[in-house]
Design goal:
It contains 14 helices and two strands; from the N terminus they run H-H-H-H-E-E-H-H-H-H-H-H-H-H-H-H. It has helices at 4-22, 31-41, 48-60, 64-85, 102-105, 108-127, 135-149, 154-164, 171-195, 202-229, 232-235, 241-244, 256-274, 282-293; strands spanning 95-96, 99-100. A hairpin with a 2-residue loop joins strand 1 (95-96) and strand 2 (99-100). Helix 2 crosses helix 6.
Length: 296
């Protein structure tokens, strides 16, 4: 088996090449909008969500070619959310993935349209005729992604985040927010990757659901830790922004040491779920370890 670093690099390169094909060329009208869509989507990011889709597909025996549209659809939703989150009316940031945010590089109206267009393109990829051998499963995948992106998923989590700024949340309230804001799309990435090749057994789905919940929370715990500890250059986005804005984070409830320990507990739980798939679940396990060990 190849190393995780080599596998991850291949998955990232595959995602980049596929996104470059799926995104409209900047020479097609409206040129400025298409240029901006490519600006925010290409040439950056860890591609964790596409990697999760490919890893989940591998765990249940789906071919990477079957998973590719779903992996890109989830990434497009993620990039749209970042583009909108960076706007002055949201988190008001001017740096993302090591370069100026979309509204800084272009303008606010373009950034709004970029997010809208990326969301539409994500749905278009999953809805394309013939993109899945089973129409019922294709509809289920569309439902999963739409639900994950909406008011009971990512958008709802962002709404709670904005409403909670400057307030002290308990652990249950904080995790409710992050299960929606971050966890919903991570869950979608895992399930879409597994469904891309066809149906799966209920026992496998339950293990993937549990795995996704654990790593979704662990990912956010580590994001909070890194926001406090890492530099802007390392993160590729403004460091220390959460504390400066009075955001509710894990570090408002526990020490950095305790937060790291909690993330490790969550990852250990995720590793146990990935173990259900034997050797085919090794990439899921690798990603879980990466989430807690990463420095950016």
């Amino acid at each position: 088996m190849t190393s995780f670093a080599a596998w991850a690099k291949h998955a990232q390169e595959r995602t980049e090449a596929a996104l470059a094909r799926y995104l409209p060329a900047s020479t097609i009208a409206p040129e400025r909008l298409h240029e901006a869509m490519r600006y925010v989507s290409l040439g950056g990011g860890k591609r964790i969500r596409p990697m999760l889709a490919f890893a989940a597909g591998e765990a249940v025996g789906s071919h990477p070619g079957q998973v590719e549209p779903a992996a890109c659809a989830v990434e497009l939703i993620h990039v749209y959310s970042l583009t909108h989150d960076d706007l002055p009316c949201m988190d008001d940031d001017d740096l993302r993935r090591g370069k100026p945010t979309c509204h800084v590089q272009y303008d606010q109206a373009t950034a709004l349209l970029v997010g809208d267009a990326l969301q539409s393109l994500a749905i278009e990829l999953l809805a394309a005729p013939g993109s899945h051998p089973d129409p019922a499963t294709q509809v289920e995948m569309l439902h999963l992604l739409a639900h994950a992106a909406g008011s009971r998923g990512m958008c709802g989590g962002q709404a709670v985040d904005l409403a909670s700024t400057g307030k002290q949340l308990g652990l249950a309230e904080l995790e409710f927010m992050h299960i929606h804001k971050t966890g919903a799309l991570i869950r979608a990435a895992v399930l879409l990757g597994a469904l891309a090749g066809g149906q799966m057994e209920q026992s496998a789905r339950a293990k993937l659901e549990h795995y996704a919940k654990c790593i979704g929370l662990a990912f956010q715990v580590m994001d909070d830790v890194l926001d406090a500890e890492a530099s802007t250059a390392t993160l590729g986005k403004t460091a220390g922004k959460d504390a400066a804005q009075g955001k509710a984070t894990y570090l408002t409830l526990m020490s950095t040491k305790d937060a790291r320990a909690y993330a490790r507990e969550l990852v250990d739980d995720a590793l146990a779920a990935a173990g259900h798939f034997g050797a085919r679940g090794e990439r899921l396990a690798d990603i879980a370890r990466f989430i807690v060990e990463r420095s950016y």
